[in-house]
Amino acid sequence: MDISKGDTLVMKKQHPCGDNRMLVLRSGMDFKLRCAGCGREFMIPRSKAEKNVKSVIKAAES
User: Fold this and answer.
1) What pairs with residue 23 in β-bridges?
2) Torsion angles phi and psi, residue 11, rounded to 5
3) Which domain holds residue 35?
4) Distance CA 26, CA 7 (A)
5) What is the 3-state secondary structure (H, E, C) of 15-61?
6) Which H or E element spans position 11?
7) Quick check: is 1 in a domain?
8) Number of structural domains in the chain
9) Are 51 and 3 in contact, with CB atoms under 8 Å apart?
10) What is the pTM of this model?
11) pLDDT, tens only, 12-60
12) Quick check: is 2 in a domain?
């Protein structure tokens, strides 16, 4: 899966705040994500994140 910094991930499950969109802050073996609803930042293993992604919204290229 081609996920890079700045992309927005639409997840299968919701964050406890109720939003299912996450912004990618860092990618590698782990992803650092920020919830689009509440702003909480967290780290998640790449394998777990890729399994739970419904779709990827690419960042606008400038």
Assistant:
1) 8, 34
2) -90, 160
3) 8-57
4) 10
5) CCCCCCEEEEEECCCEEEEEECCCCCEEEEEHHHHHHCEEEEECCCC
6) strand 8-11
7) no
8) 1
9) no
10) 0.87
11) 999 999 999 999 999 999 999 999 999 999 999 999 999 999 999 998 7
12) no
Three-class secondary structure of residue 8 per DSSP: strand
| For residue 8, pLDDT beyond 90 | yes
**Long-range contact pairs involving 29-37 (C-beta distance under 8 Å, separation at least 24):** 31/3, 33/9, 36/8
How many C-alpha atoms does 31 have within 13 Å on its Cβ side?
Answer: 25
pLDDT at 62: 40
Identify the helix (H) or strand (E) that includes residue 10: strand 8-11
Instruction: Report the CATH number at residue 53.
Output: 2.30.30
Structure letter (DSSP) for residue 9: E
Exposed (0-12), middle (13-18) or buried (19+): which is 9, by Cβ within 10 Å? Answer: buried
